[in-house]
Amino acid sequence: MSNRMALPLHFHIGTQRAGSTYLYNLLKAHPDISLSTFQEVSFYSNNFQRGTGWYADTFPQNGLRIDTSPVYFKMGHEVAPRIKAALQDQHPKFLVILRNPIDYVYSHYLMHLQNGFFKNNSDKYPEMPKKFIDFIERYPNYLERGCYYTILEKNWLSAFDPSQFKIIFFEEFTANTDHAIAEILSFFGVPPMKLTTLPSSKNKMFRYPLLYKARNIIVKSRTLTRLLKNNSLFNVFYEKFLTSKAPPLSMQDRGQLQSSFSREVLALKSFTGRIPDQWKDFITDSEIE
């Protein structure tokens, strides 16, 4: 089989901070699905220079090959044309998981704050306000990652037909994972099956910044990663002592951000036919009634 014929035709393209690690580990449990040996192969974005041979070889198992690279969605201006050129007249399918854009951008900010992203990119972020809302006022372009419909329309729908996309809402995915997984497997044409994974398979926010460095070291060892994930004692310790919940945004801050995303969410609602109940920031009183 040629490398081109072996290339995945099914993709989870994003978004980041919306259950991508959890989904990857759930899909790994399906015997008819083949995933890359390491999460987020990101061939069409960060590893394109490695070539299709390298890309195809990262999927060693038999089964339906699914490329789970959540960075693809945001980088669609670069990724979508590459996929279209590589697969030519074939009909790829794209799964997109979207999170309330306010929570999504805030979660990204907290992750970048803890893992040193802003310090490592001090040329782009020379000043770091202490409050999130002040950061957004200083760097309004940071909100662009939550402009889902603009990204979808400009970068993806210009290259592929709407029928090739399946949009799942993160809040519904986490609230009723079995139902969401059934929809995803149906979209990819895979036999239905209940899938489970361990708590450490969820990419939660770490309690201490130093843990991000430790994780980067651990994930380089597949043996150590597998050993920790399958250890029940570690999973309990991970849940109770290594992870934490993000401090909530104030209603005032949410209201300020709501105005930044309202048009985007309205356009997304027109495209999908709905938005989930959990996106209360964007649901009017008349819609609730």
What does this entry look like structurally?
Helices cover 49% and strands 8% of the residues. With 289 residues, it is an alpha/beta fold. The mean pLDDT is 87. It is globular and about 50 Å long. The protein contains 16 helices and five strands. It has a five-stranded parallel beta sheet. Helix 5 packs parallel to helix 9 (148-156). It has a single domain (3-205, 245-288), classed as Rossmann fold, CATH 3.40.50.300.
CATH architecture: 3-Layer(aba) Sandwich
Net shape: globular
Q: Based on helices, strands and strand pairing, what is the structural class?
A: alpha/beta
Query: What composes the largest sheet?
Result: 5 strands, parallel
Strands, count: 5
Q: Determine Rg (CA atoms, Å).
A: 19 Å
SSE map:
Blueprint: H1 3-6, E1 10-14, H2 20-28, E2 33-34, H3 52-57, E3 64-68, H4 71-74, H5 76-87, E4 93-98, H6 101-114, H7 117-120, H8 132-138, H9 148-156, E5 165-169, H10 170-175, H11 177-188, H12 210-218, H13 222-229, H14 232-242, H15 251-272, H16 285-288
Parallel strand pairs: 1-3, 1-4, 2-3, 4-5
Helix pairs in contact: 5-9
